[in-house]
Amino acid sequence: MSNGLFSGQLRNIFIEETDDGLELMEQGLLQLDAGTGDSDVVNSVFRAAHSIKGGGGTFGLTPMVQLTHHAESLLDQIRLGTRSWSSEIGSALLSAIDELRSMLETVRNGSDAPPQPSSELLARLESLTDAAFGAAPNSEPSPSPKVEVATEKQFHIDFSPHADLMATGNDPLLLLRELQRLGSVHVTCCDERLPPMELLDPRDCHLTWTVRLSTISTVEDVQEVFAWVEDECDLEIREEPAVDAAPPAPDAEAPVAETPATAPAAGAAPAPVQPPKDASAASNEPSRPKKTSGDPGSIRVGIEKVDALVDMVGELVITQSMLSQLSRESDASRLEALRAGVQQLERNTRELQEGVMRMRMLPIGVVFARLPRLVRDLGRQLGKDVELITTGETTELDKTVLEKISDPLVHLVRNSVDHGIEGADRRQTLGKPARGTVEITASHRGGAVLIEIRDDGGGIDVERLRAKAVERGLIAPSDELERAALLDLIFHPGLSTAEAVSDISGRGVGMDVVRRNIRELGGSIEVNSTPGEGTRLTIRLPLTLAILDGQLFRLGAQTYVLPLVSVIESLVPHTTRLSALGAGAEVYRLRDSFIPLLRLSKLYGLPGDARRLEDGLLIVTESPQGPVGLFVDELLGQQQVVIKSMETNFGRVDGVAGATILGNGSVALIADVPSLTRLHGVSPSRAPNGAQHCAA
Amino acid sequence: MNISENTTREPLHETADGDQLLTFVLGDEEYAVDILRVQEIRGWSAATPIPNTPSWIKGIINLRGAIVPIVDLRERFGMTVTPYGPTTVVIVLRAIQGEKERTVGVVVDAVSDVCSLREGAVQPSPDFGTSVDTGFVRGLANLAERMLIVLEIDQLLDFDSLNDISARTA
Predict the structure, then answer these.
(1) CB 3.0–4.6 Å: which of A348, A493, A641, A649 could bond A512 by disulfide?
(2) CATH code given to domain B16-169
(3) What is the pLDDT of residues A229-284, one digit of tens each?
(4) CB A440 within 8 A of CB A388
């Protein structure tokens, strides 16, 4: 009973909240480290640490409690002003957050016993905490044992929780324990509010307590204990004359020890009051299902989004009832009203669809939040002074897209700091500000999200890139490549070896992986660099995976859709530029390069109208093997389409990425360029772009 | 509907506690499927062809937002292909293959009836001389002097083996 409750949803909530709390702490610490934080920030970091400690305690995660407790003590001193901020403290606290994160990860994976905090870190935190009193310039008189005795105070605390205290997740017992930590306590429990047995709701709290506390702590410390329940109880804290320090210490222990026993007996729910620190309770359930990969994850949705959705459904219901009434009174004269109703239904449906889609949308700031820490740590490590500017954090992206773009973004920013920004000395000789800047912005552009990563570093040395590419046989020494094409070489897997990274002014390792990830999301990445001034990377991503911007085209009597992001251009082809290349294969000369020509009607096995090339259109699209030309009958409009899986009721079809429903209710297939090229048998070519360079 | 043949039929066995079947006509033969697997019956509407699939797969349609494949049973069973007429209907069926459930429409000449069969009324089919692959047949049933071919739709509508088929036809 004790732990089954925690194993499910509560546990997940704890994990999510701790995640958020750690995030909050990290952000606050970074602000403090940058000198932009004030006492509000310190307080919010402290509160986050306090909640994590509390949560960890509730679940019996002792290592987390232990570590957070140390961090909290240090934070408390900063909060009280007895210790001034130093970057040393910042580093230690950030390391603590890292360790807490990895502990949380093991908890997420189903473990009840996260790893012990490293003793090295604990010692570091402890020495910082202890050193504080001596080091801080304006520290209050240090509480040496002598002072302790002298300042011991007596508090009289009347604590009357409201009936619903426990419903808010608080436990009076824990509060009393907390008080016990402050000094010696004498607790009296009063049960006069207890209703007769038949009226008793075991979930309500009916008991009140009177506590006499002798402590060296201040009244603020005592109030702090009740900080979380202020609104759920009537509380009175009185300082009493020290004369009253009569109650002997031995007495103090017993009543507290009794409380756990008294409380359940008095009718409060036994389960929540049960001390969760009971280790055996945790280990009693070894058979708890481990949930790791099977967890579909959850989304936190803003309440206003849900409200909007509820409103929309309400409207939908109204429209629905209006239509069904109309259909009962089927009368030709009502046709106009029916038409209006259907229109309204259409609008409702569209809004509802958008609303549901919006639930999956999360702000990109979630990903950006990882970056300041990264830039700070990396800058320290490399001895560079780098400022990170982020804008457009509120830009929303589909959750899936967001998760998949996170690692590539981190990689790109790391590259910028590592290889883009020069060292401070070099920057000064170049007449640049010593502090380098990496700027990352996100914005909506049409139906896509644009992410730009800009640095004011040294830029990419194109000539060295070219030399490297020639050396590796990716291009011929005689090749005249445009600047853009040369820059594009950084995405080539052949240049992505560790060696190339340090050789060419950075950027190389994993850039092909970055581009592949982005392409898998239906996005694109472009690089732009000015030597000496910096580099700009532009990432274009679809808003969501379920909807894509489509280019509609016709093939025979059927309409097909091509993802617009992969379309480079469309043109009317000329027969003279077509050459056969062995059996069945054809290449088309597009300006100065040859691209494979795919006759879609043939690939799709449609009755091939053997038409002249001039009668159709060539859509040049990106493919894993470089640009290819798709020969189609006619271009139709562009529109957003909702991707529907073919695999639900049918199966995978070569050359088809899925299906969609057009405005007229008919189904159109979505062409899948990568699998079409496979179907056609286009082999990867040697040149980086797939386009064989045409001898001049 | 093909009512003319039905006029001489005996009333249904009301007391029967066996399976209820939906019967339909393909050419001169009468077929039956478990009625619990029938999702709906709708008129024929043009389907979007799927590239590189056998011709008996007529394509996919939009069934209230779901993409549903359509199979022409005449072609599936190798019967002569006739143009679709006013009685041509699509029976939307739920086929269960392992853990997967598929919704598939089948085109038949006409729907004829709903009937109940006593338990055990379906006999295993001999290897009879029709064009129907006996793997798709659960058995034969006798219903008022008429023979019903009871289909095993889970096997009939399994597309997972399609890759071999499309490879053959390619």
Answers:
(1) A493
(2) 2.40.50.180
(3) 777 788 888 777 654 444 444 444 444 444 443 444 444 434 443 443 433 333 34
(4) yes
Max CA pair span of chain B: 51
Of the candidates A96, A108, A105, the one whose C-alpha atom is nearest the C-alpha of residue A13 is A108
Question: Is residue A486 within 8 Å of residue A503, measured between CB atoms?
Answer: no
**Residue contact A649–B102, C-beta within 8 A:** yes
Tell me if A667 and B46 make a contact (CB, 8 A cut-off).
no
Residue of A650, A660, A669, A680 to mutate for B, most B C-beta atoms under 10 A: A650
What residue type is A185 in one-letter code? V
Query: Are A510 and A415 in a shared domain?
Result: yes
Beta partners for B151? B137
B48: contact with A, CB 8 A cutoff: yes
Nearest-CA distance from B103 to chain A in Å?
5
Structural domains in chain A (count): 5
- Write the DSSP string, A172-235: HHHHHHHHHHHEEEEEEEE-TTPPPGGG--TTS---EEEEEEEESS-HHHHHHHTTTTGGGEEE
- For B54, the closest chain A residue by CA position comes to A605
Cβ burial, residue A247 (10 Å; 0-12/13-18/19+): middle
List CB contacts of A395: < 8 A, sequence separation 6 or more: A363, A364, A442, A443, A444, A449
Query: Residues A383, A423: contact at Cβ < 8 Å?
Result: yes
Assess whether A528 and A491 both reside in one domain: yes
User: Which B residues 60-79 touch A at CB under 8 Å?
Assistant: 60-62, 65-69
The answer to whether the predicted template modeling score (pTM) of the entire model surpasses 0.80 is no
Cβ atoms < 10 Å from Cβ of B152: 16
Domain boundaries, chain B: 16-169
CB contacts of B160 in chain A (<8 Å) are 651
Q: CA B80 to CA B56: how far, in whole Å?
A: 12
Q: Could you tell me the residue range of the domain that residue A438 belongs to?
A: 363-542
Closest chain A C-alpha to B129 CA, distance in angstroms: 30
Residue with tokens 């006996």: B134
B47 Cβ under 8 Å from any chain A Cβ: yes
C-alpha span between A40 and A208 (Å, rounded): 33
Taking one residue from A and the other from B, the number of pairs with CB-CB distance under 8 angstroms is 66
Which residues of chain A carry a pLDDT beneath 70?
1-9, 131-151, 241-297, 330, 446-447, 494-509, 544-546, 608-611, 682-696
CB-nearest partner of A649 from B46, B104, B160: B104
| Contact assignment for A667 to B102 by CB distance below 8 Å | no
C-beta separation of B146 from B25 below 8 A: no
- Helices marked H in A248-334 — which ranges? 249-265, 270-273, 279-283, 303-328
Q: The domain spanning residue A688 has which CATH number?
A: 2.30.30.40
Q: What are phi and psi of B165, to 5 degrees?
A: -65, -45
CATH number at residue A375: 3.30.565.10
Q: Which residues pair with A639 in a beta bridge?
A: A550
User: Which tens digit of pLDDT belongs to each residue from A615-656?
Assistant: 889 999 987 778 899 999 889 988 878 788 787 888 878 888
- Please indicate whether, in this complex, the C-beta atoms of B50 and A651 are within 8 angstroms of each other: no
Nearest residue of chain B to residue A606 (CA atoms): B51
Report if residue A434 sits inside a domain: yes
| Residue in A closest to B69 by C-alpha | A650
Q: Do B67 and A649 touch (CB under 8 A)?
A: yes
Looking at the structure, do residues A342 and A384 belong to the same domain, yes or no?
no
Interface confidence: ipTM more than 0.85: no
Residue contact A655–B66, C-beta within 8 A: no
Return the amino acid letter for A444: H
Give residue ranges of A with CB < 8 Å to any B CB: 558, 603-606, 644-646, 648-651, 653-656, 659, 661, 665-669
A38 within 8 A of A68, measured Cβ to Cβ: no
